[in-house]
Specification:
The chain is α/β, with parallel strands linked by helices. It folds into two domains: about 1-245 and about 445-470, Aldehyde Dehydrogenase, Chain A, domain 1; about 250-430, Aldehyde Dehydrogenase, Chain A, domain 2. Helix content is about 40%, strand content about 20%. The protein has helices spanning about 40-60, 65-80, 80-90, 95-120, 150-160, 175-185, 200-210, 225-235, 260-270, 290-300, 325-340, 375, 390-400, 415-425, 455-460, and strands spanning about 1-5, 5-10, 10-15, 20-25, 30-35, 125, 130-135, 140, 165-170, 195, 215-220, 240-245, 250-255, 285, 340-345, 365, 385-390, 405-410, 430, 450, 465-470. It has a seven-stranded mixed β-sheet, with helices on both faces. Strands 10-9-8-11-12-20 form a six-stranded mixed β-sheet, with helices on both faces. Strands 1-5-4 form a three-stranded mixed β-sheet, covered by helices on one side. Helix 1 (about 40-60) packs parallel to helix 7, helix 3 (about 80-90) crosses helix 4 (about 95-120) and helix 3 (about 80-90) packs antiparallel against helix 6. The protein is globular and about 65 Å long. Bound molecules: nicotinamide-adenine-dinucleotide. Nicotinamide-adenine-dinucleotide (NAD) binds near residues 144, 171, 244, 246 and 380.
Length: about 475
C-alpha cells in the first residue's frame, strides 16, 4: 500500500492542509494499492502565492538560463524512466506498447522546448513598433489521468520556456505517478515556487485555480464538459485559456491504400493507449466497394491485439483506468447494439481468460451511421466504428460532420491527393500513413476539441503576451 501524503509547494514536499483522502487502485487487478491525501482550497492558495512570489525574478531570467533549467529537468526525469514506467503500469495499467513511447517522450518535452527557446525571438520589429513577448504571469495546469506524466511535463516545459511560474493540479487518480515525477522535478533544483503541484479534486483545487484572480492563464487537458466549466469560471477574470479536450478522430482508408500496411496502422491509431486517448482514430471510414474485404482484415488483425496486464510485453491493450470508465465503455457497447450497429469484433464483457481487472474487449462495430451516438460521442475505450463512404467528397463530409476536430488520419498511396484532402479536414492535426508524433508542430483542436494550441512555438506563445512599444 502506498500513501501519498505530500504535495509540492515552494520547492518543498509539504503535508496538505486538506485532510480528505482518495483510494488508489491497480486497474489490472481491481485491488486497492494506496491512498492519496488531497489538497484543499487553502493548499491551492498557498501554491498560487508561492508561484506569485517566484514570478518577478523568474520572468526576468534569460533564455540561456531557462535552457539550462530545461536541460536539468530533462536529465532529472530521464534518470528515472523505469520508475515512471512502473508507476504508470501499476496505477494506470498502461501497456509497454504505450509506455515505451510515452515515458521517453514525456522526458523529451523539456529538450523540445529548449530547442524552441533557442530559436525563438522574444523581440521583433514591426513597422514603427518594437514588439516584446512577455511572460503571461502565473499559470495553472490541470491534467487528466490518461497520460499524466506527459501532460505535466509538456505544460511545465512550456511555462518554464516562457518565464511563467505554474501551479499544477494533476488528476487525483494519478497520485503515484505524480509523486515519482515530482521527486524527479525536485532533483532539477529550480528556484523555489517556479513550479508547485497540488493533488486534489477538480471541484475543489481545480475550481479554485480557475477562479483565483492571481492566475493569469489556465492550460487544461481533459473532457469537453469540464473544459466548458473552466472556460466559464475563467471568464470573470479574463484568464488566458488553452483547452485540449475530447476527440472522435476520423481514420480514413482511401481507395488506393496498401491494406497490408494500412490495416495495422488504422488499428494502432484507433486503439492507442488502450483507446483511452483523445487522439484515437475511432471512426474508420472505408470505401463502400471495399467494405467487406477491409472489415474481414480488420477482424483478423484485431485478434492479434493482446489484452492484459502491463507486465506482459506482448500486451497492446491494458485495462480501463477505473470501474467507472470500464462501465462507461460497456454502456457504449450496449448503446451501439441498441442503435442497430452490428458487432464485427469484441462486444460486451471482459475478454476470455481475464476474470479480474477492468479489461474491455477490443470492439469493432459495423453498420454504423455517422449520426449514431457511438459515432458522435467520445467513448474513451477500445471501441471502433466502421462507416462506409462513396467517394472522397463524402469521406470529407463524414469526417468533418462531428463536434470534434482534434486529430484525423489518412491512409493511402497518392501523396498529393492526401495533402489536398488534409487541407479540407477540420482538424488540428492530420496524420498521413501513421507518421510519428512531431513535437515542434502545434497540437490542439478545432470546434469542441478545444481552444488554442500546445507544443512548439505556438504552444510557447500561448504563455506570452505581445506588447507593442511604438516610437
Ligand atoms: P476530466 O475532464 O474529468 O478531468 C480532467 C482534470 O480536470 C482532472 O484533473 C480533474 O480533477 C479536473 N477537473 C474536474 N472538474 C473540474 C472543475 N470543475 N474545475 C477544474 N478542474 C476540474 O477528464 P478525465 O476523465 O481525467 O480525462 C479524460 C478526458 O480527457 C477525455 O475526454 C479526453 O478526451 C480528454 N483528453 C484530451 C486530450 C487532448 O489533448 N485534447 C488529451 C487527453 C485526454
Amino acid at each position: 500500500m502506498r500513501t501519498i501524503d505530500k504535495i509540492y509547494i515552494d520547492g518543498e514536499f509539504v503535508t496538505p492542509k486538506g485532510a480528505e483522502t482518495a483510494d488508489l487502485y491497480n486497474p489490472s487487478t481491481e485491488e486497492k494499492i494506496g491512498r492519496v491525501r488531497l489538497g484543499n482550497r487553502e493548499d491551492a492558495h498557498d501554491a498560487i502565492a508561492a508561484a506569485k512570489r517566484a514570478f518577478p525574478a523568474f520572468s526576468t531570467t534569460t533564455k540561456a538560463e531557462r535552457i539550462v533549467m530545461l536541460k536539468r529537468l530533462y536529465s532529472a526525469v530521464s534518470a528515472r524512466l523505469s520508475d515512471l514506467t512502473e508507476a504508470m503500469a501499476l496505477e494506470y495499467g498502461a501497456p509497454q506498447a504505450f509506455t515505451r513511447f510515452a515515458i521517453p517522450n514525456a522526458a523529451s518535452s523539456f529538450l523540445s522546448m529548449a530547442k524552441v527557446l533557442e530559436e525563438y525571438d522574444f523581440e521583433r520589429f514591426l513597422g514603427r513598433a518594437r514588439v516584446v513577448m512577455q511572460p503571461v504571469g502565473v499559470a495553472a495546469a490541470i491534467t487528466p489521468w490518461n497520460s499524466n506524466i506527459g501532460f505535466i511535463t509538456s505544460k511545465l516545459s512550456t511555462a518554464i520556456a516562457a518565464g511563467s511560474t505554474i501551479v499544477i493540479k494533476p488528476s487525483e487518480m494519478s497520485a503515484i505517478q505524480t509523486q515519482v515525477l515530482a521527486e524527479c522535478l525536485h532533483e532539477a533544483d529550480l528556484p523555489k515556487g517556479v513550479f508547485n503541484i497540488v493533488n486534489g479534486l477538480g471541484q475543489v483545487v481545480g475550481a479554485e485555480l480557475t477562479q483565483h484572480p492571481d492566475i493569469a492563464k489556465i492550460t487544461f487537458t481533459g473532457s469537453t464538459s469540464v473544459g466548458r466549466e473552466i472556460l466559464r469560471n475563467a471568464a470573470d477574470s479574463f484568464k488566458r485559456v488553452t483547452l485540449e479536450l475530447g476527440g472522435k478522430g476520423p481514420n480514413i482508408i482511401l481507395n488506393d491504400a496498401d491494406l497490408d500496411k494500412t490495416i495495422p496502422a488504422v488499428l494502432r491509431m484507433g486503439l492507442i493507449n488502450s483507446g483511452q486517448a483523445c487522439i484515437a482514430g475511432t471512426r474508420i471510414l472505408v470505401p463502400n466497394h471495399w467494405h467487406d474485404e477491409v472489415l474481414a482484415r480488420l477482424k483478423q488483425e484485431i485478434e492479434t491485439f493482446k489484452v492484459g496486464a502491463p507486465g506482459d510485453p506482448d500486451v497492446v491493450i491494458g485495462p480501463m483506468v477505473s470501474r467507472k470508465q470500464y462501465e462507461r465503455v460497456q454502456s457504449y457497447i450496449q448503446l451501439g447494439l441498441q442503435e442497430g450497429a452490428a458487432l464485427a469484433a469484441g462486444g460486451p464483457g471482459r475478454p476470455d481468460g481475464l476474470g479480474r481487472g477492468w479489461f474491455a474487449k477490443p470492439t469493432i462495430f459495423t453498420n454504423v451511421g455517422n449520426q449514431m451516438r457511438i459515432a458522435r460521442e467520445e467513448i474513451f475505450g477500445p471501441v471502433l466504428s466502421v462507416i462506409g463512404y462513396h467517394d472522397d467528397e463524402e469521406a470529407i463530409s463524414i469526417a468533418n460532420d462531428t463536434l470534434y476536430g482534434l486529430q484525423a488520419y489518412l491512409h493511402g498511396t497518392d501523396t498529393a491527393r492526401m495533402q489536398a484532402l488534409a487541407d479540407r479536414l477540420d482538424s488540428g492535426r492530420v496524420v498521413i500513413n501513421g507518421a510519428p508524433h512531431e513535437p515542434l508542430a502545434p497540437f490542439g483542436g478545432f470546434k469542441q476539441s478545444g481552444i488554442g494550441r500546445e507544443y512548439g512555438a505556438f504552444g510557447l506563445e500561448a504563455f506570452l503576451e505581445a506588447k507593442a512599444i511604438i516610437s
